[in-house]
TrEMBL record:
One of its GO terms (biological process) is cell redox homeostasis. Pfam families: Glutaredoxin. Residues 3-61 form the Glutaredoxin domain. This is Glutaredoxin-like protein NrdH. It comes from the Bacteria. The lineage of its organism: Bacteria, Bacillati, Actinomycetota, Actinomycetes, Micrococcales. Electron transport system for the ribonucleotide reductase system NrdEF. InterPro entries: GlrX_NrdH (IPR011909), Glutaredoxin (IPR002109), Thioredoxin-like_sf (IPR036249).
């Protein structure tokens, strides 16, 4: 499963989300929205105005969502 986290520097929710993914052993790609205009447009096209935005093969959401991260771990998205 491909998991991408779109984040911004100095974003507390982004840091917490990244830390939770690491603790759960979930492999992901982190994209810095401040350095990637195309990624910023993708996030806006998905309807989000705040970071982090997490995109998987089947779902996407914004903000720190422990319930979603636990579901990823349960689905076997770990390393």
């Amino acid at each position: 499963m491909t998991i991408t986290v779109y984040s911004k520097p100095s974003c507390v929710q982004c840091t917490v989300t990244d830390r939770a993914l690491n603790i759960k052993g979930i492999e992901c790609t982190v994209v810095d929205l401040s350095e990637t205009p195309d990624a910023m447009q993708l996030v806006k096209d998905l309807g989000y105005l705040q970071a982090p935005v997490i995109v998987t093969d089947e779902d996407h959401w914004s903000w720190f969502r422990p319930d979603k991260l636990n579901a990823l771990a349960s689905e076997g998205a770990t390393r």
